[in-house]
Amino acid sequence: MTAFDVIASLDLLGGNVVRLTRGDFGTARSYGLPEAVLDTLAVSRGARLHVVDLEGSRSGRPVETELVRRMAARDIAVQVGGGIRSLDDARRWFDCGAARIVVGTVAAETPDLLAQLVAAFGAARVIPAVDVRDGVIRVAGWERASGASLQEVFRRFESLGIDEALVTDISYDGALRGPSFALYRELRALTTVRLIASGGVSTISDVVSLARHRNVSGCVIGKALLEGRLDLGEARRSVAVPNAIPERVIPCLDVRDDRVVKGVSFANIRDAGDPVECAMRYEAEGADELVLLDISATDRGTGTTVDTVRRVAESLFIPLTVGGGVQTAEDFRALLRAGADRVAINTAAIRRPELIAECAAEFGVQAVVLSCDARRTGDRRLATVRGGKETTSLDAVDWCRRAAALGAGEILLTSVDCDGQNRGYDLELLRAVTSAVKVGVIASGGAGRLEDFRDAIERGGARAVLAASLFHDRVLTVDAVKRYLSNEGIPTR
Amino acid sequence: MLVTLIDSPVANTANIARALRAVGAELQVTRDRAIIAAADKLVLPGVGSFVAARSWLAEHGIDEAIDAAVAGGAALLGICVGHQLLFDVSYEMGTTRGLGLVRGAVERFGGTLPVPQIGWNRVAFEAHPLFAGVAPSTSFYFVNSYAGRTSAHEIASAAYDGAFTAAVQNGRVLGVQFHPEKSSTAGLRVLRNYVELQP
To answer: What's the rounded Cα separation, in Å, for the pair B82 and B176?
Structure first.
């Protein structure tokens, strides 16, 4: 198996690198000569580069041959697509030094030509490109549906000996919602052809998640690189060594007056047992960490929390993060002394952000967790305090970014809207925060099915997934979640 | 087996004490130089700053007491920053000499992953008494921004933006970069192996 390849993608028009908005030539924005762009993006010698000849795809003949020749002369393995409709077109690109050609409409609509291209140039030099919307292949600039099904088309690729295809989910393209993991998963069941993922790749976490798909051999990235939101070198390094660092599954104990309780959207609270018994059961089930939130402490202080923590820590040998009612560095210290490894701060940090920096300086950034309870208000997501009772005017994403800069070592991000609903985490919120901060994010609020845990990590970019009632009610065990994640290619302990 | 846990203020001594008791150690927790110098089996904990932990050892003559105990044949287990203290030198905030009980230098993680490393990480090791009963590639819990990058005394390694030293041994001096007291069953097994280690 070869390494996962992160491939920069450039659209060429009129001798320059450009970007179009929704395929409209009138909207072309120029990024200058390809050489300058290659230098800016730090595309190194020997690297693979994906280019699209926009004018070529419009006019149906190779146009930017000179640019491709110049890039090939820099020892770059150019794969070029755009309007290749004959053996002669293909030959012209190879004569310019292209390493591979990418064929779209041909791949789905003219199987005879595809077979001729493979016969003439070899299966390794022909990459069929398949654009998919809602499970249906789109051709001719996405304007119409192909008559051929995904299954037929991939069967044909296999029979021609093609082992790599470029697959774009065009309902995702450029929308910054992340790659279409579901499509790549669906194709894994359908074909042995390896896929180059295209569309929606915009974060390091997207790249890492794609690399965990055994049938995905690489991805192309355009917009996010050109806009500077993603660094090509960093993306390449993130998959250079197999990332086997386990992702964490964390049960949460919501505690009130030394009892575990559970509720829906922070209300309607019921008793769910003794914290020590719950904690020990979760460790035995394989929990990677435990979060204990004292929901009574915001109003009453951390006095009883310290006692609960002391009792739990006595028999717990996994990391323990404690939150609820922490107002001062003294409260913080008392919880660490009682046996907490890390302490989560919410309300007090919003009232006085310097508390984060003070605690980080005194106890280390690893001990400081920012707990952010976010609530949707119109199209904004605002931080809330006092257990979701009060909504502030702080944008949750901005606040998380600021807290990380002040010294929070990790962010416990709860969606107040999704909490207790069992309908999945707020993936948009997660993506917004995980792409805004370098520190790890624990996804919280809304887990209901196994897929939700996977999606929080794969699509949301979370480094840990937390759930409370789902585990308390034994709808799922920690162990079952970890086995599921592992089967989905996500490393667990 | 009597284990002497050095009561450093730059450490999570209470958690380590709980774990050592849980695996059957008879424990004394002390800052007394004479007791440390005369001990047969020592544990040196540490979290946070190498420099602060090293200064405390020097200010109270604990470093000399540890040297005396090791010279007299005592076993020593360093945990996290306690493990780093065993090395020749650390480059955390300048250059600070360690205890020089194992070869190597402690350096900051560099690269793309968040620093500190907070979480579980797989540890690779060959058969070793400290890891007896622990499955290969088991994950342990780490919290660290710095680590030994290579050591002639390495007995286990892990990767975080490149390989680093997860455990060391030089004679009866042992060190683990991870937190065995927070690594569930596997971590407790490592502690038990140390507690039951015969002279």
So the answer is: 8
**Percent over 70 (pLDDT), chain A:** 96
d(CA A107, CA A97): 22
Angle between helices A396-406 and A354-363 (to 10 degrees): 40
Distance CA A179, CA A199 (A): 6
- Catalytic annotation present for B64: no
B4 neighbors B36 (Cβ within 8 angstroms): yes
| Contact between chains at A439 and B114 (C-beta distance less than 8 A) | yes
A271 labelled catalytic = no
The residues pairing with A161 across neighbouring beta strands, listed in sequence order, are none
The per-residue pLDDT for B114 is: 80
Which residue of A203, A239, A288, A317 is the best one to mutate when testing the B interface, meaning the one whose CB has the most B CBs within 10 A?
A: A317
- Contact (Cβ atoms closer than 8 angstroms) between residue B160 and residue B181: no
The whole-model pTM stands at 0.92
- What confidence tier does A1 reach under pLDDT thresholds 50, 70, 90? very low
Buried b / exposed e over A429-466, threshold 16 CB at 10 Å, is bbbbbbbbbebbbbbbbbbbebebbbbbbbbbbbbbbb
Q: Give the ranges where A339-443 is alpha helix by DSSP (H).
A: 347-351, 354-363, 396-406, 427-434
Of B80, B83, B92, B154, the active-site residue reads B80
DSSP state letters, A437-452? -SSEEEEES---SHHH
Which residues of B16-138 form beta strands (DSSP E)? 26-30, 41-44, 75-79, 89-90, 96-97, 105-108, 117-122, 124-125
Task: Kindly state the tokens that stand for B74.
Answer: 């005592």
Instruction: Name the closest residue on chain A to residue B52, using Cα atoms.
Output: A362
Compute the C-alpha angle A21/A26/A29, nearest 5°: 60
In three-state form (DSSP H/G/I as H, E/B as E, the rest C), the secondary structure along A220-281 is: EECHHHHCCCCCHHHHHHHCCCCCCCCCEEEEEEEEECCEEEEEECCEEEEEEECHHHHHHH
Low-confidence ranges of chain B (pLDDT < 70): none
Q: Which residues of B touch A438 (CB under 8 A)?
A: 114
Q: Considering only alpha carbons, which residue of chain A is nearest residue B188?
A: A317
Q: What are phi and psi of A408, to 5 degrees?
A: -70, 130
* pLDDT at residue A10, as a whole number: 97
